[in-house]
Every structure is written in structure tokens, then in C-alpha cells.
């Protein structure tokens, strides 16, 4: 079985290993392809300071380093240059023209930030303290309003498009261990899942992309399951939405972390289209029946 991982973070942003280490480990694991997806710079576009995004002034250096790795590993490992691009309405998004001009092989579209009605923007996957402060100050303690805002942002990202992979779509659950803030089983939350699944299916029909089954929360001990969770995966299966398994690896040793668990989840619901490996990054043509990997 050949694997790939198109969601990786190196020392250029918040990862712990460099590009060459990732390439070497991927090759040793028998990967046929490896994509780098640094967190795209945000300071110039948003004015926000960040310690975990690629600095604006290092963007060209990062892309040059990935493309040099592609040359070094040619014939042994296919190396792809990408970015994980945040979506904040009116400020930044994967559909921005400047990203199209970079000659990227692909990009991941993700929601990490919420702009609440009051207070400061906050990271939904930041520390539990940041998450709690964002709800208390930005949404006057109304966690359900925060949930509404998050799923509205996800739908806006999907409709805006510009990405090839939709990243960790239910990231909001990361800081909701033991359902402290909101219930994942509530009818209200279920309505959000159905709406976003419908939105994905509708937009996939006009601008093909894949939804990632992201094992990063499992790899870092932050969640008990993948992004997305099983209920949303079932809804995506019903709508024949294609998936790709990624590790959201911040360390090279996590490149195929919990892939077997993700594969088992998809088998459980008889998912018929899922990527494990990309010979060419062509979402329309390269979909593989999951049963081929049993």
C-alpha cells in the first residue's frame, strides 16, 4: 500500500522537523508523495501577529526550499508545494488572487479564527483558555452562538472556494472535550452538520475538491477521533463526497499516524471514494475504491 500526506507543517511555521527530515521519513515509510502545507502568512492581510504562521517575509524562501526538495528527491518521492490558507471573511481566503499567482501545487482551506460580535478575534483551536475567553468575551458566554458563527464561517469558506482540500472541518470540537461547551448530539448541532454536508456536495459539483479525514488531533492527543467525526462522515458518504486521509503532521514521525484507524472508520461506513495516495494531484480523475486497500 502506498500512502501520501498532503497536510504537513515544518519548522517554517509551527512544525518541529525540517523539510529534509520529512522527505527522508516519508521515503522510509514507502510514501509515493509528500505535500508541504505551511500555514500561509496572515500579518499583512489581517494585521494580526502570529507565532505559528509562516512569516510574510519567508514565503518565497519556503516555496524555494520545497521546490529544491522536489529536485533532490525526484525519482524517489514526489514532493508537492502547498499552503494551508486561513479563511476570514473580508480579510483572507484561499480564493485570493495572490495565492493563485504563486504556482502552488495545491492548497488547503481552513477556518482557525472567529471574529466575534465583540472582543478580539480568537483561535478556535488555541489553548482551552483562549477558547474559553473567546466565548466569554466575544459571545457573552453563549457557546451556541459561537458554534453558529463557526459553522457559518465554514459554509462561507466552502462557497468562496479556491482550495483543493477542505481542512479539519469540525475543528471546533477540539476544545469541547466531554462536551463542556456544547453537545455534539443535539439537534441544533446535527442541523449544522447536515447544512455543511449539503453545502459541500453542492459546491463540489461546481468546483471539485476533497474533504480531508485528518488524524492530527489523534496524533497529538487532542481528540478521540478524526476530523471529521463519524456522524459528519456518514453524511458525506450519503452525498458521495471524496475524501483524502492526512496526518496534519507537525513531526515527521506522525506522517502516517492513525491512518489505520481512519481507514477502519471509513470501512465501517462502507465509504467508496477515498484517497490514500496521489499519483497526480487531479481530484476529478484520481479516486480510489477503499476496498482496494483492505
Derived structural class: alpha/beta
- How are the strands of the biggest sheet laid out side by side? 1-2-3-4-7-8-9-10
Q: Which range does the strand content fall in?
A: 5-15%
Give the name of the CATH architecture: Alpha-Beta Barrel
Distance between the termini: 10 Å
Topology:
Blueprint: E1 4-5, H1 19-28, E2 33-39, H2 43-46, H3 59-72, E3 78-86, H4 97-100, E4 106-110, E5 113-114, E6 122-123, H5 128-138, H6 143-160, E7 165-166, H7 187-204, E8 210-214, H8 216-219, H9 230-238, E9 243-246, H10 259-268, E10 274-275
Parallel strand pairs: 1-2, 2-3, 3-4, 4-7, 7-8, 8-9, 9-10
Antiparallel strand pairs: 5-6
Explain what the structure shows.
- It is a single chain.
- Helices cover 35% and strands 14% of the residues.
- With 294 residues, the chain is an alpha/beta fold.
- The chain has a single domain (4-293), classed as Metal-dependent hydrolases (TIM Barrel).
- β7 (165-166), α7 and β8 (210-214) form a beta-alpha-beta unit.
- α6 (143-160) packs parallel to α7 (187-204).
- It starts with a strand and ends in a 19-residue tail after the last strand.
Amino acid at each position: 500500500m502506498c500512502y501520501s500526506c498532503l497536510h504537513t507543517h515544518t519548522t517554517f511555521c509551527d512544525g518541529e522537523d525540517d523539510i529534509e527530515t520529512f522527505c527522508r521519513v516519508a521515503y522510509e515509510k514507502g510514501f509515493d508523495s509528500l505535500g508541504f502545507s505551511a500555514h500561509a502568512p496572515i500579518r499583512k492581510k489581517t494585521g494580526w501577529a502570529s507565532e505559528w504562521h509562516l512569516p510574510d517575509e519567508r514565503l518565497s524562501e519556503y516555496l524555494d526550499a520545497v521546490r529544491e526538495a522536489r529536485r533532490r528527491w525526484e525519482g524517489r518521492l514526489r514532493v508537492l508545494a502547498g499552503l494551508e490558507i486561513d479563511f476570514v471573511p473580508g480579510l483572507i481566503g484561499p480564493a485570493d488572487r495572490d495565492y493563485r499567482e504563486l504556482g502552488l501545487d495545491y492548497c488547503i482551506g481552513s477556518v482557525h479564527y472567529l471574529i466575534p460580535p465583540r472582543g478580539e478575534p480568537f483561535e478556535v483551536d488555541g489553548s482551552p483558555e483562549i477558547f474559553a475567553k473567546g466565548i466569554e468575551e466575544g459571545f457573552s458566554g453563549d457557546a451556541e452562538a459561537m458554534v453558529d458563527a463557526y459553522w457559518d464561517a465554514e459554509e462561507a469558506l466552502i462557497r468562496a472556494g479556491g482550495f483543493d482540500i477542505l481542512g479539519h472541518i469540525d475543528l471546533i470540537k477540539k476544545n469541547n472535550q466531554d462536551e463542556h461547551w456544547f453537545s455534539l448530539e443535539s439537534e441544533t448541532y446535527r442541523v449544522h452538520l447536515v447544512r455543511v454536508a449539503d453545502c459541500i456536495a453542492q459546491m463540489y459539483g461546481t468546483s471539485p475538491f476533497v474533504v480531508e479525514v485528518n488524524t492530527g488531533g489523534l496524533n497529538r492527543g487532542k481528540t478521540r477521533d478524526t476530523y471529521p467525526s463519524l456522524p459528519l462522515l456518514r453524511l458525506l458518504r450519503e452525498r458521495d463526497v471524496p475524501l483524502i486521509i492526512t496526518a496534519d503532521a507537525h513531526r515527521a514521525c506522525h506522517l502516517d499516524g492513525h491512518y489505520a484507524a481512519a481507514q477502519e472508520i471509513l470501512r465501517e461506513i462502507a465509504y467508496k471514494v477515498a484517497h490514500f495516495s496521489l499519483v497526480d494531484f487531479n481530484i476529478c480523475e484520481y479516486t480510489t475504491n477503499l476496498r482496494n486497500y483492505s
